[in-house]
Amino acid sequence: MMNNREFDRVLYFLELVSDVTLNFREQVQQALKQVWGYQHSVFWFTKDDGETFNPQLLGISDHIISEYFDFYITHDFLHPTRYIHENSDVPSVLASYHVLSLDELKRSIYYQEFMRKHCYIDEMAVNFSYNNKIIATLGILKQQGELPFNEQDVWRFQSISKIIEKKMMHYFTIREMIDEKQLIRNKLAIAEDGYILLDTACNVLYENPVAQQVLQQQGIKAWLPAQIHNERFIWSNDGQQYVFSTTKRDHKFDGFYTTPTYLLRVQTNNSYMNNLQRLGLTSREEEVCALLLEGLSYAEMSTTLFITVNTIKHHVKNIYQKAKVTKVGELRRLLFT
């Protein structure tokens, strides 16, 4: 099925994505558009259970993807959660005609109420896996005026998917290293808090000066291993209380990542913690609130917490409503007064 022209196109595509950067997903989408004309796509990260998150969009608006998330994701017949629990072998490429006949597709709620509304006529999903677990999913859409997906499209993506998979592993490695450094750098911006980086055996990999003073207290190092799996725990000594907040850095790709780590934030149980507790925030809202107070942008918070910018905005809106404030300066005064 690969004639000389198609072979040249594959080589050109591989050249365009040869250098793996933090914008690798966008590189792939732009290359697919440039080489084969796929103008509408969404590149997701995928969890072990098939749930998709943190979409990278090309030719698709935030409004459309929000509508998809709000309702139509459960009707998407190519979404990984539809088949990830049913098959031992993860399908690498799925076109709509692999799952439904044309008549069934056009009668579906997903087609009638979502695809047709936004002038889409067909879709395809390309899954990238590691150890038979999906790590990322690329969705490609065709609009009115374009031809539906066919065997040529399927064969094309099958021929390049393994190459993209290997490069995705390099991408995750680069991203992990940069995120780790960025996370520590952001956390250390608040000098009055302590930060401790531990491996799974509770060996201290890093401690800032404030944390060093806390760790000098008798018995605390022996006490930590039983606590680090909790999101929040308290250490009391001589009338002083310290609140520990834990973030697990779970590196699930053995051989490509460093050892899993825990980042502990240590705070004195002062008026900030009391005021924060009174707001009744969820654990995720507390994470967003902490980063908001540190001055991170929505994009930086999205990268740190691995959720979309729209989800960050939603959490910030909820925080402001619960605190009855309209901007971060008012929130800071409320929590630290």
Automatic annotation (TrEMBL):
One GO term (biological process): regulation of DNA-templated transcription
InterPro entries: Sig_transdc_resp-reg_C-effctor, Tscrpt_reg_LuxR_C, WH-like_DNA-bd_sf
MF annotations from Gene Ontology: DNA binding
Annotated Gene3D superfamilies: Winged helix-like DNA-binding domain superfamily/Winged helix DNA-binding domain
CDD domains noted in UniProt: LuxR_C_like
Pfam families per UniProt: GerE
UniProt KW keywords: DNA-binding, Transcription, Transcription regulation
HTH luxR-type domain ranges (all copies): 272-337
PROSITE patterns on file: HTH_LUXR_2
Name used for this protein in its record: HTH luxR-type domain-containing protein
